[in-house]
Design brief:
The structure is a single chain. By secondary structure, the protein is α+β, with helices and mostly antiparallel strands. The chain is 15% helix and 21% strand. Strand 3 (71-80) and strand 4 form a beta hairpin. The longest helix has 20 residues, at 103-122. It is flat and about 75 Å long. 9% of the residues are buried.
């Protein structure tokens, strides 16, 4: 039962650096460009204590609303009681990454646009909706030169 309730209480593993990922950060972290409206994932980096988000926001996804020299402002929706509050948190860029949550959606939009254009040109009606995995088609197994074999369990017998 924990008795300390500090700002970083119970974050032993949350803010720990991963195996063989200790040391200074890559310079590519600082070369990334963030614009207003970008969707970002918040992930606190234990190597940089400045501008670190509170442990609640670790793993959350938000939208950039402000960009400064070394930090960005992110809007995150936090559940408080029975409602969601819009929280605006300022986080240094070491603790955020571009989110990949829209990559699949944007890829599907491009594929659907290309498929729709090809369908218009050829005059064929095509469905652009996603479908769940369909049942496999039926198969017929011939017994000609393929005798069925009966498989039985081997009765248990001690080896002693």
């Amino acid at each position: 039962m924990p008795h300390s309730f500090g700002y970083r209480a119970r974050t032993r593993y949350m803010f720990a650096r991963k195996f063989r990922e200790h040391g200074p950060l890559h310079l590519s972290t600082y070369m990334k460009v963030y614009k207003v409206g970008d969707i970002v994932d918040i992930k606190g980096n234990g190597a940089i204590q400045k501008g670190m988000p509170h442990k609640f926001y670790h793993g959350k996804t938000g939208v950039v609303y402000n960009v400064t020299k070394s930090a960005v402002g992110v809007i995150v929706h936090k559940r408080v009681g029975n409602r969601y509050m819009e929280k605006r948190v300022n986080i240094r860029i070491e603790h955020i990454n571009h989110s990949k949550c829209r990559d699949d959606f944007l890829r599907r939009v491009k594929e659907n646009a290309a498929a729709a254009k090809a369908a218009r040109e050829s005059g064929v009606r095509v469905s652009l909706k996603r479908l769940p995995a369909q049942p496999r088609e039926a198969r017929f197994v011939s017994t000609q030169n393929n005798e069925p074999t009966t498989i039985n369990a081997i009765p248990y017998d001690t080896l002693i």
